[in-house]
Specification:
The structure holds two protein chains of two kinds. Chain A is α+β, with helices and mostly antiparallel strands. Chain A has 15 helices and 25 strands. Chain A has a five-stranded mixed β-sheet. In chain A, a hairpin with a 3-residue loop joins β22 and β23. Chain B is 73% helix and 0% strand. The C terminus of chain B is likely disordered. Classes of the chains: A alpha+beta, B mainly alpha.
Chain lengths: 486, 335
């Protein structure tokens, strides 16, 4: 594929690979050489090998159309995204700072509410947040850890600067793809790994299970840790199963658990066995029909009572969703200043709150130029990308904002950075983001890299798998390559 | 082990075994047809209908097809999604069960099941079938063998593995009895005698469909008689598809699950499997024929159902009756 990058256009975006036409950034040079050495048949063979191994292993997600679920493999692009270690160190420091502040915020908001009393965040914002759980005021979680597992979305703008797009403090998904993508890349490009020293990601599940064991409510050193899944029809079921398998823990559905005397047990062929820590991949609302949604068939009656009495721990804690509210997100830089007395290392994307009168006037005038987001939606739903929207959609959102200003925020359209991706038979630039996974236990662990999602549709800025997104392996490399000569 | 997991492993294993046995029986029947000339609609129907009956799907079949012939029956038993026992349905269900317990099976097991599933849903399987049905059935049987081999060599031989053995042997015992029964329903053409040419060919086919021909010949040199074939397939102590062998293994696996000694029983399922196992150990072919072969096989099938139900009640009872969970969970499993 000599010349496979010769027609490649960076466009008006920050390109991860090319500093200028034909000139690869130093950390991408060896990759470029390898791809140029490869014949088109070899590349095609590698693509097939990768797709086949993902399909055979069932690395799939479920798409629901006409009530019929079909399994698809999460499209995988063979050209890895490379992050030099100098950039990674910045990301790591920024994320550590951010998760520390978020945990302090959650503890505060469920206890003394100092940050509200000192009017750093308006009380109304927290009180009206859809996922704030006032029932848990004054409740102490083991080790004061609320967000054990976080998957923060990072993007880069047209100058290559990193920004935090959202925090995902409830049940972030996608980490299994990060791990599987690496396995596939090693199988498909073994000798490319020889040319780079890529930081390994395999320790993730090891660290995760250590973390879960360390937050057992009664300090039990041999706790029974389980993963609670909504079941095989959940689109992320593959991931739940993958994680349970890699950690060697039991995966359970609500019906496998029962609460007796405020303790949680799982039903086994040998009777009941006590459960100490639940890594739940189920939203708060579905956890316990006695407390939250009474129609939930996925949860366990009495679970919340057992949790309150300190007989079982949940990761993440109940009530972390308040930090995912996009209006609360707006205040994260202020939280960092308030709790840590530091400047944010990774900035937020500039955000306008339609609850603020001035901002609202600006937003309403510029709906067609902005990205509008509902405060509590995710997965690419409940949002509008102004410049790509029809007149009707713009009007619809304008109406929604006026009707419920608290529920909407707006951001300028960030021209996400692009990376080369294989599209049909050519290599073209496609927009990407990055979701690193942060584990917060006795220490904070961030696995080098994360999941790079890529919007495979031409021109699309939406990377979600439900909206035509794919993924790439993400490499943090120690060797930065020599600086360009000319 | 979670009760739900035990149940899923058991059914996963049963469905794989069922797919394999369907492939065996169809293959043999197709080959058998080649040995007879001048067939008319009537004889063709007599040749194929017993297979439908052995699946107990007579009504469903005739709601979809008006004629039982090679084409319709083979399609019904291989690919028909509406037929809950077809190869396609069995593999789909095996996979659905496997999907819920992936962390208990090895990755290799899952990959194998998934590969067969994807193959059956693909054009490849149809074109292989169109080119050579023999090759197609062979690939299903081999896929099942590969799965069993992978299971033996990659999965811990613990409780979960034992539930897989229970599923495999209960299904295999049931299917062997049904294959034998198919021959019982297979009428001899007019003018043909019991022990005559056609009769022998049919009994040979029964043996072939259980991969038993070679083993049989070593034991009964130069003789293919109904009673010796039945004796072999029902009472042989070490041929892996004989009913006795399967029931012995089933009984052994149940005892390993509870940890009770072979000479005792810890639950109703063990009592029933132990009793069936002893009956088979001490029955002669003479007893069986005087009871009536068809009646005897029928009884074996219903006794296997009772064992399966009892096992389900002991280890997975809560799965149906949510309210009884607590009472069962607090009382000891063993009786």
């Amino acid at each position: 594929m000599e010349g496979c990058f010769s027609d490649y256009l960076s466009g008006d975006f920050y390109d991860e690979m090319f500093a200028a036409k034909g000139m690869a950034r130093p950390h991408y040079r060896k990759l470029m050489e390898r791809f140029q050495e490869m014949g088109p048949e070899e590349f095609e063979r590698k693509r097939n090998l990768a797709a086949r191994s993902l399909l055979n292993q069932g690395v799939t997600f479920t798409v629901y159309n006409n009530n019929e679920g079909t399994e698809r493999i999460f499209p995988f692009d063979l050209i890895p995204r490379i992050i030099p270690s100098s950039e990674w160190e910045l990301i790591e420091r920024g994320l550590t700072q951010r998760i520390t502040a978020l945990n302090l915020f959650l503890h505060d908001v469920y206890h003394g509410q100092r940050i509200l009393k000192e009017k750093v965040i308006p009380e109304e914002v927290v009180r009206s947040a859809a996922h704030f759980r006032p029932e848990f005021m004054g409740f102490d979680v083991p080790k004061n850890i609320y967000i054990h597992i976080c998957g923060t979305d990072l993007i880069r703008d047209d100058a290559g600067a990193y920004f935090v797009l959202e925090d995902n403090a409830r049940c972030p998904s996608g980490v299994s793809y990060m791990l599987e993508n690496r396995q596939v890349m090693k199988r498909v490009f073994p000798n490319l790994f020889g040319r780079y020293s890529v930081r390994p990601v395999d320790a993730y599940t090891e660290e995760l299970v250590k973390l879960l064991r360390s937050v057992s409510p009664d300090g039990n050193t041999e706790p029974n840790v389980v993963l609670l899944t909504p079941g095989i029809y959940n689109s992320a079921y593959f991931e739940h199963s993958f994680l349970a398998r890699s950690m060697g823990i039991e995966i359970v559905v609500g019906a496998d658990l029962v609460v007796q005397d405020s303790k949680v047990y799982m039903k086994t062929t040998k009777g009941l066995k006590k459960v100490d820590v639940i890594y739940r991949r189920l939203d708060d609302d579905f956890l316990d029909p006695l407390v939250f949604r009474p129609d939930s068939l996925l949860g366990v009656s009495g679970l919340v009572d057992a949790y309150r009495r300190g007989n079982v721990n949940l990761a993440n804690a109940i009530g972390t969703g308040v930090a995912d509210d996009k209006v609360v997100y707006y205040y994260v830089p202020r939280m960092i200043k308030f709790y840590l007395d530091q400047e944010p290392i990774l900035p937020n994307v500039p955000t306008y709150l339609s609850a603020h009168e001035e901002d609202r006037a600006y937003i309403l005038e510029n709906v067609d130029k902005l990205v509008i987001k509902a405060a509590n939606e995710s997965g690419g739903y409940g949002m509008l990308i102004g410049p790509q929207a029809t007149k009707e959609e713009v009007e619809k959102f304008r109406g929604l904002i006026i009707a419920n200003p608290r529920n909407y925020v707006a951001q300028p359209v960030v021209l996400l950075s692009r990376a080369p991706a294989f599209c049909d038979s050519t290599i073209e630039g496609r927009h990407i983001d990055l979701r690193p996974y942060i584990l917060y236990g006795d220490k904070i662990t961030i696995v080098p890299g994360g999941l790079t999602r890529v919007a495979l549709r031409k021109g699309s800025l939406v990377v979600n798998s439900s909206q035509g997104g794919g993924s790439k392996d993400s490499w943090v490399v120690d060797d930065e390559g020599e600086t360009p000569g000319c | 082990m979670l009760s739900r997991v035990a149940d899923a492993l058991y059914w996963m294993s049963r469905y794989i075994e069922r797919a394999e046995n369907n492939a065996r029986i169809l293959d043999v029947n197709l080959q058998l047809m080649l040995d007879f000339e001048n067939q008319n609609e009537e004889t063709v129907r007599h040749h194929w209908e017993p297979i439908i009956n052995s699946l107990e799907e007579h009504d469903l079949f005739y709601s979809l097809h008006s004629e039982a012939n090679a084409e319709t029956v083979v399609d019904f038993v291989s690919f028909e999604k509406k037929n809950p026992h077809s190869i396609h349905s069995s593999i789909t269900r095996a996979r659905e069960n496997a999907r819920t317990v992936r962390e208990h099976a090895s990755s290799e097991m899952w990959e194998q099941i998934n590969r067969v599933y994807l193959f059956l849903g693909s054009e490849r399987s149809r074109s292989l079938f169109a080119g050579s049905a023999y090759e197609f059935f062979k690939s299903i049987v081999e896929a099942s063998h590969l799965f069993q081999g992978i299971t033996d060599s990659t999965m811990t031989h613990g409780e979960g593995w034992e539930f897989i053995q229970v599923g495999k042997y209960i299904e295999r015992a049931d299917r062997t009895s049904r294959i034998l029964d198919v021959k019982y329903h297979l009428l001899l053409p007019t003018g043909e005698k019991v022990g005559g040419n056609v009769d022998v060919v049919q009994w040979l086919a029964v043996l072939k469909s259980c991969s038993a021909l070679e083993a049989y010949r070593k034991l009964y040199v130069g003789e293919v008689a109904p009673w010796s074939v039945a004796e072999f397939l029902i009472t042989h102590d070490s041929f892996p598809r004989s009913i006795r062998f399967c029931v012995n293994r089933l009984d052994l696996a149940l005892h390993r699950i509870s940890g009770s000694a072979k000479t005792h029983y810890a639950c109703e399922a063990e009592r029933l499997s132990g009793r069936l196992s002893s009956d088979l150990d001490y029955s002669t072919i003479g007893d069986i024929f005087s009871f009536g072969l068809h009646q005897y096989l029928d009884r074996i099938q219903s006794r296997l159902v009772v064992v399966s139900d009892a096992m389900h009640e002991t280890y997975c009872e809560w799965m149906e009756e949510e309210d009884e969970i607590v009472s069962r969970a607090t009382s000891p499993v063993a009786k």
